[in-house]
Design brief:
The chain is α/β, with parallel strands linked by helices. It is 23% helix and 26% strand. The protein is built from seven helices and 15 strands. Helix 2 runs parallel beside helix 3 and helix 4 packs across helix 5. The two termini are 34 Å apart.
Length: 280
């Protein structure tokens, strides 16, 4: 069972008696980038920790799974990250028994900052019950196609509302989109350099011994609400034969129907489809 944990940018997956909380893109240490530009913002890691502890305390999960971009710097960690990240995870261990991280594009050289008990999973993702999860900057593992639903981060989706005077309001959102199972299978096989024999689904079955089932994708908002994000309602609809302007190879493929995706605020308010919001 998958449940979006309104009003937090987090999800709960229940498999039998086991509960897993999922978040994405905390980007600890983002303040360091501002400091380099002369903007001095105190570390906000304690506020992110407090928000996450609130979620963990309420739902008492067995596992916390983070879908990438634990830190803000892409390669080498800055001094502030060397302090904030180990402290952040040491404190988290008091509230949840198991923590795992799917590697994101900002997580190079993350291992020295983590307690030894926290595994760093490949960027191609993992499965929890009937849900596949990955960061989003790389194609997922073929194994994720065994799941009806997949979840990714990476995009930091937000919508922007503007009034006639030019003022704007930005809000984080969830994105729920349909996937074309056949097209997703076809593109994945091409990425794996596997020749399609029959239909894409039949070829997946032949090579991986399972029938692909993925029919929907959720794009998570960033757990770090200080960062802002990409205003998805200011993107252009994809024309036939053209790639989407969204970031991430899955979203740029023709397998995900982003134009007709459902957009929800963190409190669960349904805003309409992406195409409807683009016209506002």
């Amino acid at each position: 069972m998958l449940k979006l944990l309104m009003p937090w940018p987090a999800a709960l997956i229940k498999t039998g008696k086991t509960k897993t909380i999922v978040i994405a893109d905390p980007h600890l240490g983002w303040e360091m980038a501002l400091r380099d530009k002369g903007i001095h913002v105190p570390s906000q890691s304690s506020k992110l920790l407090e928000k996450l502890v609130t979620v963990l305390s309420k739902y008492q999960p067995d596992t916390l799974l983070i879908l990438g971009d634990v830190k803000y710097t892409v390669v080498a960690a800055k001094p502030g990250e060397w302090h904030d990240i180990p402290e952040f995870f040491t404190e988290l261990k008091n509230y949840v028994k198991n923590i795992a991280i799917v590697r994101g594009n900002h997580d190079a050289n993350l291992e020295p900052l983590l307690p030894e008990s926290i595994p760093l999973l490949p960027a191609t993702g993992t499965t929890v019950g009937d849900v596949g999860l990955f960061h989003g900057h790389k194609w997922p593992s073929p194994t994720l196609l065994t799941c009806k639903t997949i979840i990714m981060g990476h995009l930091h989706p937000v919508v922007v509302f503007r009034d006639p005077a030019g003022f704007k309001i930005t809000r984080q959102v969830w994105v729920k989109a349909k996937c074309d199972t056949s097209q997703l299978s076809k593109t994945l096989l091409q990425k794996q350099r596997i020749k399609i024999d029959g239909t894409p689904e039949e070829t997946v079955k032949k090579h991986y011994n399972f029938k692909p089932r993925t029919s929907q994708i959720f794009i998570m908002p960033s757990f770090n609400d200080f960062l802002g994000g990409r205003p998805i309602n200011e993107t252009k609809p994809r024309k036939k034969g053209q790639a989407s302007t969204m970031i991430g190879p899955v979203l740029r493929s023709e397998a995900v129907d982003l134009d007709n995706s459902e957009i929800y605020l963190l409190d669960g308010t349904y805003l309409g489809t992406l195409n409807q919001l683009r016209r506002l």
